[in-house]
Amino acid sequence: MRPIDRLLVSIRHIRGRLVESILVVLATAVGVALVASMAAFIRSYDEQTEYLLSHPAYRELIVEAVGNETELDEPAVEYDPDTTSEASLGYDDIQVALENTSLVTYGYLADREQLSTQLPGSGRFSGRGMAAAGGVALGDSSRDPAAGAGEAGVELPFPPPGTFPPPTDMTDAAEGDGAARGDGAGSGGSDNPFAAIRKQMEDAAAAGEEPPEFNLDQFFQVDDDVLTELPLESFPGRRVSAEFFEAYGLAVAEGSEFTNEDLESGNQVIVLGSSLADALFPDGDALGTRIRLNLQTYTVIGVLSPTTLTDTETDASYNDVAYVPNAAAQVNFGGNVMRFHRPAGTLRFAVDDSANLDLATAELQAHFGAEYGDGAVRITAPLEELQTEREKLSRILSVVLFLAAAGLFIASINLFNLMLMRVIKRTKGIGITRALGATRREIARQFLNESAFMSLTGAVIGLAVSPFVYRLLQSALIAEVSAVTLVNWPFLLVGALGAFLFSLIFGVYPALQAGRIDAALAIRSE
Amino acid sequence: MITLEGISKSYDLGSVQISALKGIDLAIDRGEFITVMGPSGSGKSTLLHILGILDSPDAGTYRLEEHDLMTLSDKELSRIRNQHFGFVFQSFNLFNEFNAFENVMFPLMYAGIRGSERRERARSLLVQVGLEHRLYHYPNMLSGGEQQRVAIARALANDPTLILADEPTGNLPSDKGEEILQILDGLNRDGVTVVMVTHDDVLGKRGSRCVRLRDGVVESDTGRAA
Ligand SMILES: Nc1ncnc2c1ncn2[C@@H]1O[C@H](COP(=O)(O)OP(=O)(O)OP(=O)(O)O)[C@@H](O)[C@H]1O
Ligand SMILES: [Mg+2]
């Protein structure tokens, strides 16, 4: 018998028992979709794990001063390093720590911070709002110095002018050394604009009146060549020290990276990720441009080569991130250039081989213990958290995979039962086909063809819906982990093929039974 | 054409053994029209199944032309059934999911005949049994006589040399039974060997030779006497 004839005969038999066949096909489709999407999902998940394990962020050790976290909810303006923290960590600590340890290869600062071209409070501060805005904005930015960036459109890297009195560590740029590369303008205005505003507000309060409104634009003037409008209003940034580029393998395609001299002398320079540069400067004229971000004026000195790295917390591509020196903020406020310091708080160290993380932790612990006293700093390894989280998720995934396999198994058993029932119901017909010249083998093939046709239909439907099941699994399982985003098509296919073959096996036994039927007996049966 | 020697067949029902055939010797020549008669349970159907190699005997030999059928494989035996034998049953035994035309095509499919040749052949067979107006009727839309004619057309699909009919008229009124017998007669005149089981004494005399069975043995055989 030719395969096409066999197939046509199969279809007629399936049509003869349409409802049962459709149910079995649908059950198979569900099983195949579950198994295929789980297979693809687990594969993507493994790939992601592999990627994360190779990610420089997971070779990091994060050192924070114990005590810093106690006042995180309070406005930074009240921050006093002398009383609130045992250890005050800064850039200098990195160098010392590197000298005193052998396994630690890199040390750098790398705080997240959203960069925005906008002025705070959409350009207007009411007198009352100023105090509030200052407190809130600062609370945000200091709540998590490591993560830094809030989602709010505008975030100030320093106490905004709404907070009075001005921070104690604020210095006038005119008195400080190292004139900013980005801003050489307006210094030396002797009357402090803060004093005037403060006077007005105090007067209003004393008179029981509404505080007057101030338009911020009048205080934040920039040179004519400084861009205050960009195609993107806001984008992710990282305040880093120069070693960050090396530790993360980031290289410049154009211009140059900044150095630690830039950092020390407070140069306001910025290096752009490749995609970000394209987005901000479609004409490719990024280098040398001056832009206003978070009230500061930065000069673009470099554009990075594309990288495959993504941020492990936000999932943003590093190509979409801008990098600025982790240094004092310099703001031209009412003609006065002022510098605002923010305690570094979080130091990052990295090892070459994540196997050395434990030993490196011990080294750093010993070093900082000797320096600031035992327990003064807390050292965390992101890798450890990742592994704990992944272990938990792996267990969940195995359970879901098991359930998916169980679904396929049940569907296949249904197919098995249906086929066995058909063999019994068609016993007489089998006897007749034997009389007409069908071999035992041909009869077995006919039944196998029927079950295979149903398995295949189920597998095709299952494969077609599996991307949706995949998305469902993704949203259900990966809520807390940076998502496995891509549908892994090869493994979806492999999974569907495997499930199809599995279901196929369940048609074999009924088919063999059909072939074994005794012809004479079958013809006598009713 | 066929020689059976010492064919016996028994069924093991656990506690009892039923001997359906007890040493049957039978020689069938080409062109004969043999009727097989005998009381119910005497082994007529069993004999027919063994002749049609749907069943295999426990003992004895079966020679078809020069072949000892006991030594052939399932594939070879199936080919013989397909090419040389045609079966007609009392209860018609058509495939209910397939129409008359398709039913007739089954032996042709097993023979590997394809396309237009197959369709032409199926059509001409149905014309031959007088069913040109019932090609696409399903079995349940056909009368008993029509169904049996479809069954005969199907049995004739590959030009068999031997027709094995087990009470082909048993489920039909006598006039319809007569039609069937006319067809078988005609085939026999054309040289096809026919073995037909029947309970009807009148029909039993229509053949060229009548074999009577009783309790699994040949009670009488007009062919031998003659
Ligand atoms: N599969 C079987 N298992 C057990 N006994 C069987 C089987 N097939 C047939 N027999 C027995 O073998 C004997 C011969 O049966 P067979 O069908 O050949 O008789 P028959 O002459 O065709 O009868 P009828 O005229 O009623 O059709 C009977 O006694 C029957 O009960
Ligand atoms: Mg019988």
Break the fold down into its secondary structure elements and pairings.
The complex is a heterodimer of chains A (526) and B (226).
Chain A: H1 3-16, H2 18-54, E1 60-65, H3 81-84, H4 91-99, E2 104-108, E3 110-116, E4 124-126, H5 127-143, E5 171-172, H6 193-206, E6 213-215, E7 226-227, E8 234-240, H7 243-247, E9 252-255, H8 260-265, E10 269-272, H9 274-280, E11 290-293, E12 296-304, E13 322-325, E14 329-333, E15 336-340, E16 346-351, H10 357-372, E17 377-380, H11 382-425, H12 427-436, H13 440-477, H14 489-505, H15 508-516, H16 519-524
Parallel strand pairs in A: 7-11, 8-13, 10-12
Antiparallel strand pairs in A: 1-16, 1-17, 2-16, 3-8, 4-6, 5-15, 9-12, 10-13, 11-12, 14-15
Helix pairs in contact in A: 1-13, 2-11, 2-13, 2-14, 11-12, 11-13, 11-14, 11-15, 13-14, 13-15
Chain B: E1 2-13, E2 16-28, E3 33-37, H1 44-51, E4 59-64, E5 67-68, H2 74-84, E6 85-88, H3 100-110, H4 115-128, H5 144-155, E7 162-166, H6 174-189, E8 193-197, H7 201-204, E9 209-214, E10 217-221, H8 222-225
Parallel strand pairs in B: 3-8, 3-9, 6-7, 7-8
Antiparallel strand pairs in B: 1-2, 1-4, 4-5, 9-10
Helix pairs in contact in B: 3-4, 3-5, 4-5, 5-6
The structure holds adenosine-5'-triphosphate (ATP) and magnesium ion (MG).
Helix content of chain A: 40-55%
Largest interface, chains and sizes = A-B, 27 and 29 residues
Detail the poorly predicted runs of chain A.
70-81, 122-190
Number of strands of chain B: 10
Structural class of chain A: alpha+beta
Low-confidence stretches of chain B: none
Radius of gyration of chain B, CA atoms, in whole angstroms = 17 Å
Oligomer, anyone?
heterodimer
- Indicate the mean pLDDT of chain B: 92
CATH class of chain B: Alpha Beta
List how many beta strands of chain A DSSP finds: 17
